[in-house]
Amino acid sequence: MKFMAIVKANKDSESGVMPKLELIKAMGDFNEKMVKAGVLLAADGLQPSSKGARVRFEHGKRTVIDGPFAETKELVAGFWILEVRSKEEAIEWIKRAPAPFGDGEVAEIEIRQVFEATDFPLEAFPAEEVAREQALRAEAGKKLRK
Amino acid sequence: MSPSDVQGTIRAIWRIESAKLVAGLTRMLRDVGLAEELAQDALVTALERWPEAGIPDNPGAWLMATAKHRAIDVLRRGQRQERTHAELGQDLEDAQAQGGPDLDAALDEPVADDLLRLVFIACHPVLSPEARVALTLRLLGGLTTEEIARAYLVPEPTIAQRIVRAKRTLSEAGVPYEVPRGPELTARVKSVLEVIYLVFNEGHTATSGSAWIRPELCEEAMRQGRVLAGLLPDQAEVHGLIALMELQASRLAARVGPDGEPVLLLDQDRGRWDRLLIQRGLAALARAESLSAEPGRYTLQAGLAACHARAGRPEDTDWRRIAELYQALGRLEPSPVVELNRAVAVSMAEGPAAGLTLVDALTRDPSLRRYHLLPSVRGDLLAKLGRLSEAGAEFERAAALTRNERERTLLLTRAARCRGEA
Fold first, then answer.
1. Of A58, A96, B305, B413, most Cβ neighbours within 10 A?
2. Is there a contact between B414 and B396 (Cβ–Cβ < 8 Å)?
């Protein structure tokens, strides 16, 4: 089973403040433990929303809104993708993470199960959509090879 | 937390901690059977105490401390014969004293070697492959006997017996509790990789029971492969096996059609291939190839899987590279089936005539006499060359040899079409 663990943003991650060296090291050690346990598939940090943008979909219109975004609570600072045998195992691993913004700061990491292709019965997708998705992924696949 | 939540959490903690626990105890006691018993005792105690007392902050350290206390008790009651009680008891007290308040840090030091030692013990060549699998899933996977039995669709007592006998074999054989070195290490790594790939294949091509594929076994095998890569980062074939497993697993979702029938690779919906696993598999393959100039069997097979993974559509497949890889594989492990696969690749790269020359040579191989894919491939090549009545005869021959109903029907249909057009 795959889970995504999402680090919610806070004012520091949004301000672009670099984390303290001990925290970087502690996170590195934690990631290494998960790699050695064979459970970490992917991990990345996201840059502040000031460097990002949003596309808003409303009644057929698309609007682009540039960051930064005020509602820090809605934002994501980073994620891990874990492959474990149960939600409890994902939780146990994340509990072992260093406090994402240091022990003095409140932080939240949300854990969500990833849909896997085997979760979708083939009948759920009509044939043309399957073909379109297939073509898109083939394009993405070609780019991956570069 | 509800009682069932606590149970689920304790099981998760066990899955994370048990291998390290058993590994450490094995080092102290030089007896994997006893180590496992004490580890299980600690688990039982946890299951009794934690629902009321709460789960400790450092559950791994709690389990190790509990197991060590039991170990000292057991030794003092004189149940171990091979070393003096005083010696072993002293070792344990020293280990405990060294543990102190920061047990986790103290345990971290020897752990890497302990775990590796346990891996080599569980996969020891003196054990049968099925014994190695059961022991590995139990000791390194932290799976219960029931979970292993369910995964392999055999009765639980069968697995329990297998594990009991495996431990007895190990103790009777007087297996040394050391990590092998030098050339022996490479040889022993082979037997470990064999076990991991056996587990993977059981999950990947399982034909018994209602599930065609058992993803949990594939995931467990990949996890153990990754753990091994952390323990032996310079062993090329470890990365090769991980690459092979991740690339094969990337296609799991596409392998079964809506009617539950298997879908051949070239017919699969590539949109259902897992891109993250492909990315990881290709990275592991690159690592394997950078570590050794002479690719081993897993690295070569991973190379084959990579050729397909890199092709966005079947027509983009690098058949020439596939043919080369089969040739290398054939040199490493001569096999008429490998040669047949090479012939198919050559026919895709150079045309049916070139492939047919290779296949014709194989018709003389006695070991392929009852192999339905030989006439099936030959028929296909003949049909492409316009030699339809010969093609028809080959498809009929193949149909007679296959035990798969659906396949027989397909082959007979092809035969009839050839006859019709000839």
1. B305
2. no
Partner-chain residue, chosen from B13, B16, B269, that has the shortest CB–CB distance to A37: B16
Lowest mean pLDDT among B203-217, B231-245, B268-282, B295-309: B203-217
| Residues in chain A whose Cβ is within 8 Å of chain B | 1, 35-39, 41-42, 81, 83-86, 88-89, 91-93, 116-118, 121-123, 130, 133-142, 144-145
Name every chain A residue with its beta carbon within 8 A of the beta carbon of B11. 86, 88
What whole-number distance in Å separates Cα of residue B108 and Cα of residue B115? 11
Residue found under tokens 């899955």: B15
Q: What is the DSSP letter of A100?
A: T
Helices B319-332 + B336-350 axis angle, to 10: 160
CB proximity list for B378: less than 8 A, separation 6 or greater: B356, B359, B360, B363, B394
CA-based end-to-end distance of chain B: 74
Q: Which fold has domain A2-117?
A: Alpha-Beta Plaits (3.30.70)
To the nearest whole Å, the CA of B13 is away from the closest chain A CA by 7
Q: Who's near A135: CB < 8 A, 6+ residues apart?
A: B271
Location of structure tokens 């089936």: B337
| Interatomic CA distance for residues B329 and B320, integer angstroms | 14
pLDDT tens-digit series, residues B280-295: 999 999 999 999 999 9
* pLDDT confidence band for B208 (50 / 70 / 90): very low
Q: How confident is the model at residue B387 (pLDDT cuts 50, 70, 90)?
A: very high
ipTM passes above 0.85: no
Q: For B66, how many CA atoms within 13 A lie in the half-sphere containing its CB?
A: 24
Q: Classify residue B334 by burial, with Cβ atoms within 10 Å: 0-12, 13-18, 19+.
A: exposed
CA distance B275 to B140: 28
Place of tokens 């969500």: A112
- What are the pLDDT digits (tens) for A92-123? 999 999 999 999 999 999 999 999 766 655 44
Domain ranges (residues) in chain A: 2-117
Q: Does A141 sit within 8 Å of B278, measured CB to CB?
A: yes
Token pair of A98, please?
């260093």
Confidence (pLDDT) at A132? 54
Two structure tokens written together for B270: 């590539």
Which residues fall within 8 angstroms of residue B110, CB to CB, at 6 or more apart? B24, B27
Q: Chain B partners of A139 at a C-beta cutoff of 8 Å?
A: 312
The string over B335-353, giving b where at least 16 C-beta atoms fall within 10 Å of a residue's C-beta and e elsewhere, is ebbbbbbbbbbbbbbeebe
Q: Which two tokens stand for residue B109?
A: 């030091």
C-alpha B354, offset from chain centre: 36
Q: How many residues does chain B have?
A: 422
Residue owning tokens 């994370």: B16
Rounded to the nearest 10 degrees, what angle do helices B32-53 and B3-29 cross at? 150
